[in-house]
Design a protein that fits this description.
The chain is built from eleven helices and six strands. It is α/β, with parallel strands linked by helices.
Length: 211
């Protein structure tokens, strides 16, 4: 069971998230917060495994609140929820140590996928956030060759496609190979780069500007 705190300045959005999670057996909303004071009390008291944090315009929660969560409930995983995923906001949040970010444009399936992914200890970015992060593109194979020369050319190409958000079956179709072969490539890439999940690989690709 994943315990969660919902922190949002808008009651309607908090109610919507609670309604969405009400029938999820593996997630329990233990508290909610409308401001920083309520959030501090909630995370200190409940030590939730997950905090869904509104991060947006002035008057909403901020990087200071992220720091408070890290201090008072260090095991909590944080999902940032924003209606304005500008690049400066995303970068500021990533620099604070948060590695999961979705927007309020996400549908319920995406929100649930984010929660389930983060609950497993993995990173998650919705497609809108990835689009913002991927604005600057360079020659991906050449860039990755300099960063990870131990990868084969095909492994470099697979890494590039994963970084752009493609699924293994889409990569298999692109190269006319089996999905088993794609998964084998991914397994080898993870081992060579010392990564634990495809979400880590996406972040690696973004951070190294290979997509």
């Amino acid at each position: 069971m994943t315990t969660a705190v919902i922190a949002d300045t808008q009651p309607l959005y908090r109610d919507g998230l609670k309604l969405l999670l009400r029938n999820r057996r593996n997630v329990k909303v233990v508290s909610e917060a409308e401001n920083s004071e309520e959030l501090s009390k909630a995370v200190t008291q409940y030590q939730p495994q997950l905090v869904m944090l509104d991060y947006d315009l002035p008057g909403h929660f901020s990087v200071d609140d992220i720091g408070m969560i890290r201090k008072n409930s260090p095991e909590s995983r944080i999902i940032i929820v924003s209606s304005d995923p500008c690049k400066s906001n995303i970068n500021r949040v990533l620099e604070s140590g948060v590695e999961s970010y979705i927007t309020k444009e996400c549908n319920k399936e995406q929100v649930l996928r984010a929660i389930e992914t983060v609950a497993r200890g993995e990173k998650f970015f919705c497609h809108k956030v990835l689009e913002v992060l991927l604005e600057k593109r360079v020659n991906p194979v050449a860039a990755l060759a300099g960063i990870a020369p131990e990868l084969t050319e095909r492994e470099m190409e697979v890494t590039r496609y994963i970084g752009t958000g493609k699924k293994p079956f889409e990569i298999a179709d692109e190269f006319s190979i089996s999905i088993h072969t794609v998964r084998t490539h991914l397994k080898n890439i993870m081992k060579k780069l010392n990564l634990k999940s495809t979400s880590d690989l996406v972040l690696y690709a973004i951070n190294n500007r290979i997509v």
